[in-house]
Amino acid sequence: MSNEQLVVSYRDALKSGKDKDWARILKDEIEKRGLKPFKNR
Q1: What's the pLDDT at 12?
Q2: Exposed e or buried b for every residue in 3-29, given b needs 16+ CB within 10 A?
Q3: Looking at beta carbons, which pairs linking 1-10 to residues 24 or more positions away fall under 8 Å?
């Protein structure tokens, strides 16, 4: 999964709020890659 796809998937998972395990997995991968999923964080 590309970095862009990873961030978009994470944002969608947070918005839906249904699949918290998937959001956590995506967040771990984002942190591992050193990405910032939101501009103002």
Answers
A1: 93
A2: eeebbebbeebeeeeeeeeebeebeee
A3: 3/33, 3/35, 6/30, 6/33, 6/35, 7/35, 7/37, 10/37
Q: What is the pLDDT of residues 15-36, one digit of tens each?
A: 998 889 999 999 999 999 998 8
pLDDT-derived band of residue 40, with 50, 70 and 90 as boundaries? Answer: low
Two structure tokens written together for 28 = 């771990």
- Written in H, E and C, the secondary structure of the chain is CCHHHHHHHHHHHHHHCCCHHHHHHHHHHHHHHCCCCCCCC
